[in-house]
Amino acid sequence: MNIFLFHKIYSQNFGFNTWCKLLTRSLKIIGHNVFENDYDFISKNKYYPIGLLGQADLIENWKLSNPALINPCAYWHPSQNPTLFTNPNFKYCIVSCKWLYEVFSRVYGKDRCLLWFAGIFIEDWTFPNRRKTIDVLIYDKENTQEKTISPFIERFIKSKKLSYKVIKYGTYKEDEYKQLLARSKCMFFLSKSETQGLAYNFAMASNVPIIAWDCKETIDINSYFQIDKDIQITSTPYFSSECGVKFTQSTLKEKFEEFWNNLSNFNPRKYVMENLSPQKSAELYIQYYLQISQE
């Protein structure tokens, strides 16, 4: 099948660019032809479905009349464009986790929102025969103006006399992250919220067990948009007991002991293979893509 996707590359948005590459690659491995930004064909075939992969600037300036599937990175919150679906060509909005589905469906309606995930390629994150010389890798995604947990975690690890490295969100290249994962026995993941959490998904694909901060508070997405208090925001929307454990500041000591003493029993790669495979991701996207073509 021929799939037409339209996107922009954003120099300051590593997450979106990675997400876009994962989608196109996943579609190709199950045999679909992916055409990117082919405005000539689409302008001449106005009923052919398209996927719009971009942020607000692309969505709000879109002029063609093809039925469109809106990507999950278009907006942080539906209040940024509560009238999105007054455009009759916009059929559905994809969201990338259950808690985000709750946020968007309360504005756009459950009939307009579709749940989807980006597929993770295990082969990109497999490092055979590497010595694990780092006890703990700390992935720090806290806002630099609101540090609450990362200094506490570093002090805790030092008290345990464990070796560790810190990698900060937005400051590294993928190869650096891969090298650290290859050498790490486990990873602290410090983030208040994630809509999929590609960084920790990649760590799990590397079979690195995760001990994740469970912030347990109602927060703003990107410090701008208030979320209803009954929506359970999480930093690990794709996670199970196979992958590791979660902790709060008050339960860190007991949870870390449980985690550290059972490192060999975790199998996060198995979870990724069963729940976040590129094949499943692509098949789900195609299901939605065909849905808009039949309406």
Model description:
- The chain is built from ten helices and 13 strands.
- The chain is of the alpha/beta class.
- β1, α1 (14-29) and β2 (33-36) form a beta-alpha-beta unit.
- α1 (14-29) crosses α10 and α7 packs across α9 (268-275).
- The mean pLDDT is 90.
Write the layout of secondary structure elements.
Layout: E1 2-7, H1 14-29, E2 33-36, H2 39-44, E3 50-53, H3 56-60, E4 68-70, E5 90-95, H4 98-108, E6 113-115, E7 136-140, H5 150-159, E8 164-168, H6 174-183, E9 187-190, H7 198-205, E10 210-213, E11 220-221, E12 225-226, E13 244-247, H8 252-260, H9 268-275, H10 278-293
Parallel strand pairs: 1-2, 1-3, 3-4, 4-5, 5-6, 7-8, 7-9, 9-10, 10-13
Antiparallel strand pairs: 11-12
Instruction: Report how far apart the termini are.
Output: 18 Å
Q: What overall form do the CA principal axes indicate?
A: globular
Overall mean pLDDT score? 90
Largest sheet entry = 6 strands, parallel
Which structural class fits the helix and strand makeup?
alpha/beta
Oligomeric description of these chains = single chain
Order of helices and strands: EHEHEHEEHEEHEHEHEEEEHHH
Low-confidence parts, pLDDT < 50 over ≥5 residues? none
Strand order of the largest sheet: 2-1-3-4-5-6
C-alpha Rg (nearest Å): 20 Å
Note the beta-strand portion. Answer: 15-25%
Q: Say how many strands there are.
A: 13
Number of helices: 10
**Percentage of residues in helical conformation:** 25-40%
Features:
single chain, 295 residues, alpha/beta, five-stranded parallel sheet
